[in-house]
Amino acid sequence: MKSLSEIETTTKRASKAAGFSWGIAEEVGKSIRLLELFGLAGIKNLNKYYIARSSKKFENTNLINENNNSNELPYCPIILGVCFLDQIRSLEKFNKITFNKISYPLLILPFLSRSSEIIGKKIYLKFDKYEFLLNLNVSISSNLFNQDCPIITNDVEINILENKDNFSDQDWKSLYKISEETFVEETDSLKQGAAGAGLTDND
Amino acid sequence: MEIKLRDPNIIMKLSRLGSFHQSKLSFLRSFLDEFKDWEYKKDLFDLDEKGHGTAIYSFKKKDRVYSLVCFANKINDEERSDRVIATKWDAAFTLHDGVPLKQDIERLRNEVPRQEVGRLSYKELTLSRANKSVRVFNHVVESLSNGNQPDLELLKKVGYLYRTTAVYGSGKFGLADRFRIKNREEINGPFRLEMMLVYLVRQFTFDQVNHVARFRNPKTAVNLDPKICKKLGIGNSTGLGMAPFIVNHPTLLNNWIMSREIALKKIREIKKVNSDEVELFIKSVKNSIENITSWNTESEYQKKKITSLLENVQIFLKFIEKEFSFETNYPFNEIYLWLEKETCDECIEYIVSIMMEPFDDIVKPLISKMSSEEDQYFNIPSHRTIEDLRSIIEKRYPDILKINFDKKENHKNFWFISKNKEEPRYADRFEEDGSELEQPLAIARDIKKLHDQLIITKGSLTIDKFLIQNTDLRHVVRRAFIIEKFPYAEIQDNTIGEKVVPIDMLRLKLSFFGALKFDPRSDKWLRICMFQGAPLPEELKNYDQQWVYNS
């Protein structure tokens, strides 16, 4: 088994060799480490992408907008991921961000995961039949498990989710009621001795 | 009275960092302090008459066990090499997490002696190998087998029976990643398990030499006197592999230096000291003279430093005994100011280290602050502006911005990773090939380049927009924002200039390890000694805290 430290170091070196700057290579190292830690096929997808880069061209993202359309070439997932991470505070205002073509889309996941932690909001990602919930860089929920991720996708949707409960009011009330069974009914004399009792709050 | 922390622009110069010495903050001393209450055991000692075979040593407390698994092998004299290109060693070691099962030992027997080409698992924490000092080892065997103790002069000159040539940890070659163990209470300082490995290896070398002597002549053999054992440590040959570490781990470097600086500041702020504290300080300085005078090296560079250190320490002793009164207010501040005025860098840092000896209450709480959660500071705050970044760089890198990198002598060298051993190396870019594959360790040059670019960029622009067009500067943008929070995180010197002495970087790191007797063999590698004078495992429960000076 390879350690995460080995994964990060080798990924960083390979990314530099693939033509990225050292600063970007450092980002990729951290990101692939994260993917592998979450049990997703980071090394496999990155390896395939770097082999593809030697013979194919990819579009580099600059400023990310609400809707992003590459004319011919698919977006490079590394540059897109790094730009998304860098620009997350200005992207937060969009409810939905779309991209028409991204190669090796699994590789953008760790950048979205880290972005989720920076803004303190969950991020939802959908492409093809796959869905991912990036949860403040603590976990990634997905329906892609033990399956190969597509090497190119034509319709990517990213939603930055507002912080809200993941359950209904009814569920909460019901659980709260159960929790009340740990409370003890106070007697009148105890109530009179509690903090603030007997004083006027206007003094 | 409030004393300011020392200026990073002075302290973080390579010549100053290369003058650092071990102290109470050093990792091997804090390791001993942490593990002094643990149960030590020799669990297995299965060696043949030549001393080849397997041995296991452990430290145990409650449910936690750390086991050193040793494999001693036969190698021919011509195969023995301290260089990293070696493929065979007299002994190889790993620190196993827990009690190794039989199948673990068999697995490790196949992997550990192969070192870099072997594979370890998450159950192993550190990995190392060592070679005998053949001259000393054979002499000790010969003497013991004849019923005599060895020649103390020879032992004093060398200082060890074995020297390690590398100690690996933190995920190398499949070893456990640090995140798996970092929350353990006993791992509250850096390199703690590397120190444990070296300490237990030291004990193995004593047991092995006794064992071989006994087999050589069972009727007359005696054991090596424990008092002599105590005077022996473990040697270490260290090359450039260690140098990039302190550049690649800026927050960790900051936390090491910051702990030292806070300790010094607090000691200087003590208004009155008691007689016990004074006595311990003076005794430690006096006893330490023997360390300096027994320091053997062929290096002219180091000899000059030792001579100057010895002269300065003697002048200092004369000063505190004849001219100085500890009755004065803030005595250690007065001493520090005198040192700055009257002595060399090496002496200042030497005495600063010894100043910590009487003050456990100041030093001990700092030890747990010497690790770092580096990932917390990795993200670039890309919402900030060019003006912010420019201001940070001008404040934190004043001397570096004055360097002219158009001059050949200021960018003469480059750092690279060697293809055959995957180890960091250093070469002249105008004489050697490969500078296009330079590692990102020329921080001064790249910071200057970043600053040049920032000057011609609109101040209100945010970093995310700047990075779109300046991806080649991303690594130093990240760095500058780290240095904003961590003032001692950066070497304030040019690491690729003609005049750089790489062993200054090694000495800095080794001083925090707790190494003694730096012996440079060139400007790129040196030998040191660790744990010389340290208590033996059976003595840990009650040992002399100042053993470094009293050995």
What would you note in describing this structure?
The complex is a heterodimer of chains A (203) and B (551). Chain A is α+β, with helices and mostly antiparallel strands. Chain A has one domain (4-160). Chain A has helices spanning 4-17, 22-37, 42-53, 77-91, 109-119, 169-179, 188-192; strands spanning 67-68, 96-99, 102-103, 123-127, 130-135, 139-142, 152-153, 156-160. In chain A, the strands form 2 sheets. Chain A has a 6-stranded mixed sheet. A two-stranded antiparallel sheet of chain A has the order 3-7. In chain A, a hairpin with a 2-residue loop joins strand 4 (123-127) and strand 5. In chain A, helix 1 (4-17) packs antiparallel against helix 2 and helix 4 packs parallel to helix 5. The radius of gyration of chain A is 24 Å and the shape is elongated. The N and C termini of chain A lie far apart (69 Å). The mean pLDDT of chain A is 93. With 551 residues, chain B is of the alpha+beta class. Chain B folds into 3 domains: 8-23 and 248-372 and 511-518, no CATH class; 36-132 and 164-222, no CATH class; 374-485, no CATH class. Helix content of chain B is 42%, strand content 14%. Chain B has 21 helices and 11 strands. Chain B has helices at 8-11, 14-17, 27-35, 102-111, 134-145, 152-158, 192-216, 226-230, 243-248, 250-268, 275-293, 300-323, 331-342, 345-355, 360-367, 386-396, 443-455, 463-469, 474-485, 502-513, 547-550; strands at 39-47, 53-61, 64-72, 91-97, 124-132, 160-168, 233-238, 413-417, 424-428, 516-520, 526-530. In chain B, strands 1-2-3-4-5-6-7-11-10 form a 9-stranded mixed sheet, sandwiched between helices. Chain B has a two-stranded antiparallel ribbon with strand order 8-9. In chain B, a hairpin with a 2-residue loop joins strand 2 (53-61) and strand 3. The longest helix of chain B is centred in the middle third of the chain and has 25 residues, at 192-216. In chain B, 45% of the residues are buried. The mean pLDDT of chain B is 94. Chain A binds chain B through residues 1-6, 13, 20-24, 26-27, 30, 62-63, 82-83, 85-90, 114, 118, and chain B through 121-122, 170-179, 375, 378-380, 382-383, 417, 440, 463-465, 467-468, 471-478.
